[in-house]
Fold:
Amino acid sequence: MHKNLKRTLWAALVCTSSAVIAPQARAAALQACFLYPSPVGQAGWSYQHDQGRQAMQQALGGQVSTRFVEAVAEGADSERVMRDLASQGCGLIFAASFGYLEPALRVAADFPQVKFEHAGGYKTAANLNTYNARYYEGRWLAGFLAGRHSKTGIAGYVAGFPVPEVVQGINAFALGMRAANPKAEVKLVWLNTWFDPAREREAALTLINQGADVLTNHSGSAAVPQAAEEKGVSVIGYTSDMSKFAPKAQLAAVTHHWGGYYTQVAQAVMAGQWTPKPVWGGMKDGLVQLSALNPALPAALKREVEARRQAIVRGSFKPFAAPLVDNTGKTRLAQGALDDAQIAGMDWLVQGVTGTLPAAAR
Structure:
């Protein structure tokens, strides 16, 4: 009886102490929360964002606590999850998918004390910022590499939704490929989803059957690299180094790197210096890289790619420089280079791309 009473009193003391101390401990640390559109898994879009979360946590230690919710559908589900996170004390919420924008704006309006960061968006609010990377810079290099490597002159591109970011990547890849081989062709299959391994694989096989000997994708799983490895064609990985899934097939990967940015944002919030100033960084900022080049690639080809990478970083080469002609034969730019507004609103496909944009995207 005495021992049981002692344990009861000790448990009550612990609960009472926690009730007093835990809120103070939580107040001392920023709680940063993340929403991902697909499972984190071992590679891909959500995986790279979560690598950024982990890097932020490691850099800031006890100054920040983090949590994430994966596989959150765009639309009503994402709004519900963001409301829950804001209600539970998240002071900083990263919404890492294009379709989270409108829900994030609604939740931000109801939680003015919470700071929101949205990946790929085009609207801001007093407490909502947008951030993105110039993935198209890495895509141009990937296309150049594909053009030099391909024997058939045909690449296959598995694409999610026809939002400008995806269209930029398709166009940059095709321009890079045709810089290496003016007769090259990029065949396009739309998924109308970000993550569906079965459909991604089916699209990859369709493109291989149409003569593509190099594949790439803008989708969330490793299904396209796996299909390339299985069928003996090459692949340019996207978001993550996919060599673990395609050790022979992968030529290189266009990879995303968010740790530095996420750390800076959290530091700004904690210092009271955060402002909604949209960010669109590129290779020079370290947000996107062409990495994991296959060791079997010829040294001369690697030097060619590196020279062009350096030109992009310096700003002496612009991936969307004239002349630019679309795949209907219409001249889109006769001289100069597209400015950021024109790139951000891109709703047409360049010459060399076989495929169309859904009507809603044009």
